Amino acid sequence: MIFINKIHAIFNTFSNKNAFCIKNKYYSYSEFYSQIFSISKKIEIECKNQQRIGIIASDDIETYAAILACLLTGKTYIPLHPHQPSDRIQQIINQAGIEYLLSKSTDYSFDGIELINIENNGEEVNNSVLKIPDESIAYTYAYILFTSGSTGVPKGVPITYRNLDSFVEAFFALGYKHNEDDRFLQMFDLTFDLSIMSYLIPLCIGACVYTIPDTGTKFTNVYSTLEEHAITFALMVPSIITYLRPYFNEINLPHLKYSLFCGEALYKDVVCEWAKCVPNAIIENVYGPTEATIFCLTYPLNNIEELEEYNSMLSIGKPMQGMEAIVVDENKNQITNGTKGELCLFGLQLTPGYLNNERNKESFFELNNKKYYKTGDIAFINDKGNFLYCGRVDHQVKIQGFRVELSEIEFHLRKITNDINLVVLAIGNQNGFNQLFAVFETEMQNMEHIIDDLKQKVPAYMIPSEIHFVSSFPLNSNGKTDRNKLKELIQQSK
Question: Residue 414, SS3?
């Protein structure tokens, strides 16, 4: 396993360098390894033959050490969010068959679970060395992440060691210039797979990981970390710079070498302005669902003046090493002429399938002896071979019998309002028909002229029937706009 060998070598080479900065406290690679070794011994003694191990995923060094203890000993870890409802955590525990739970806190109690305290007891490693697992673990699950399921039950996405190793190999093949002196931002909740790149890659090269506080406002915490610690490599969701946009004139981050975005559509206007804040950074839009291990397509913004876009949403580029992407129609026939269809993925980073076979039949299909995953994203390929993201299949709705892409309405409204942050939602009414709502992140204002302008751009059935104003959009734990929460707020207001 490439990443396991890399990390083991780093512990020996850079033992005195800082591995993490958490809540402004630094931890060296030597200290971190001591934590990992201590937890691995507890796993070996107390978990016995149990393969799958739950971890209460808090922002502390013990949690990161627990994750690495599992990965470096060939176990499967399942991160559990400490602030999620206990019923949801119990559902995940039951689905994954977890019997042991690693946690720094003893304040948790779940049915059929033995809690193992991982708080550091000051144990010395004394030059002990963890046994490196061999290649036989390749098809063993490295981790299982649970995302929202359409039935209300969390959906388990297992990623194998081979999947994760393939991502690491493909990441390094991108040719980024980084080393042990770099400083990586880690802004994500540990149940979100973008967090894995944010700590795993720096640990492979001996760099330092800087996490952000889990209290306060996320975008301000991100900015203060970028500035105060002179971060050189940052992977963020686009929402972060949308919220920072009013302060762009005051932001100057010359130390940032790489600025990557993933998780949401990246809009051309805001990223062109962001480029002035990071004058020395290479900016890239990267794409990938959890099912394809972190991200698997990349689009470098080499020339700000010639960016490829669709409705102001930047291209997601081309597949990384070991991955393939195609676009298919409703009958799963491949489309190659620039027509929109559903983006599908195949390759070394692709999950073998959902845990307990949930939704596997509808989400995976065979084509030309290859197993593809249907992403649920609408895309097309342009004449340069780059993929253009057009929105979600589930954001493509029927209004009065017409197929409507919500992203198209959002595009026109953004242009008309000089890029006010907004979303368009489709909510079923009492008669069972979809009704369009435009929600603006601004103080209440007269929108009659905006609707009049929109009528000049789109058909009548694409005009929102109601306008709502919200002082600030609700965000999920990863900084993305929470559309479901917005829908709840609108429904409650009616």
Answer: helix
pLDDT at residue 474 is higher than 70? yes
At a CB cut-off of 8 Å and minimum separation 6, what does 44 contact? 73
Structure confidence at residue 163 as a pLDDT band (50, 70, 90): very high
State the greatest distance between any 2 C-alpha atoms of the chain, in Å, as a whole number.
74
- CATH, range 1-137: 3.40.50.980
Closest by CA to 238, choosing from 272, 208, 213, is: 272
Looking at residue 149, what is its pLDDT? Answer: 59
Structure tokens at 263: 């998780």
**92 CB contacts (<8 Å, ≥6 apart)?**
54, 78, 80, 98, 146, 154, 156
Contacts of residue 129, defined as CB under 8 A and 6 or more positions apart, other chains included, come to none
Least confident of 157-166, 345-354, 357-366, 427-436: 427-436
Higher per-residue pLDDT: 219 or 149: 219
Q: What are phi and psi of 334, to 5 degrees?
A: -70, 140
Closest CA to 372 of 328, 427, 417, 437: 328
Model confidence pLDDT, tens digit, residues 8-38: 999 989 999 999 999 999 999 999 999 999 9
| Exposed e or buried b per residue across 383-398, where buried means at least 16 C-beta atoms within 10 angstroms of its C-beta | eeebbbbbbbbebbbe
Which residues, other chains included, contact 105 with Cβ-Cβ below 8 Å and sequence gap of 6+? 56, 58, 82
| Structure confidence by residue, pLDDT tens digits, 228-249 | 999 999 999 988 998 899 999 9
Task: Report phi then psi at 444, rounded to 5.
Answer: -60, 135
- The DSSP annotation for 359-392 comes to THHHHEEEETTEEEEEEEEEEEE-TTS-EEEEEE
- Decide whether 159-393 matches 400-493 in CATH topology: no
Return the closest-CA partner of residue 284 out of 196, 295, 292.
Answer: 295
Domain topology for 400-493: GMP Synthetase; Chain A, domain 3 (3.30.300)
Extents of the domains making up the chain: 1-137, 159-393, 400-493
Query: Is pLDDT at 220 greater than 90 in this prediction?
Result: yes
CATH number of 159-393, picked from 3.40.50.12780, 2.30.110.10, 1.20.1740.10, 2.120.10.30: 3.40.50.12780
